[in-house]
Amino acid sequence: MLAEALEHLLTPCPAPARRMGLLRESVAIGARHRRCREAWRPHLERCRAHILQAADACQGGGTALVLGSGRLLDIPLEELAARFRRVVLADAVHPLNVRWRARSLPGVRLDAVDLTGTWQEVLQGRLPRPADPALYRDLSPDLTVSANCLSQLPLAPLARLEAAGRYDADELEAFHRAVLAAHLDWLRTLPGVRLLLTDTAWPPGPRGDDPLPGLQLPPPLDAWDWTVAPRPEIHADRDVTHRVAAFLLRG
Questions:
Q1: The CATH number of domain 2-248, selected from 3.30.420, 2.60.40, 3.40.50, 3.40.1000
Q2: What integer pLDDT is reported at residue 4 of this predicted model?
Q3: What highest taxon heads this organism's lineage (predicted)?
């Protein structure tokens, strides 16, 4: 707990991301990974392998854009930095260990960004229309990876909107679907190779068992189970497992 408290205190984080609870979430992910390292290993290795395969398929070695780079658990950063002149890591929070790794690699850029385009309005209690991140409209990446973040993008904004108590269930569900669709639609407009890594099913809960409601995805390149929380991390008598898949997107 002391290590987590220090990380929370020392990690640079934009005020909107902090208010959305995303710094707290980043620290919690790091703590869970430390507790569940062996259970997560097959999932993380598979993600890194698919990213390197996608990098091999690129025609150029100019720019790689990683959306949802997080703690780099699933990202082969050093290998990408060796293959591309520029690697852009995009997420709400870049933990201290990520900053240290990036500092030693020329061409690696850290962007603290709202990938949903909704935070400003959500923090004011308004129900926004999701938008692509304008920061990347002129980037022209050779490789774009959406790294296990798609299903997570609506969750923090939804939590804020639900707490505001101004919107009914249908409005919130429409917002949920719109955030997912906006991210997928934006990925399809980008040039180069576009790899999507995402949950496709998870245990039943308040939002059902479909983390991607309303989305139509192509057949996956690969699919596997990720033991997110082996017993007794959450439940004493059972594991929590998500279904994950890798997709190559086309325009």
A1: 3.40.50
A2: 78
A3: Bacteria
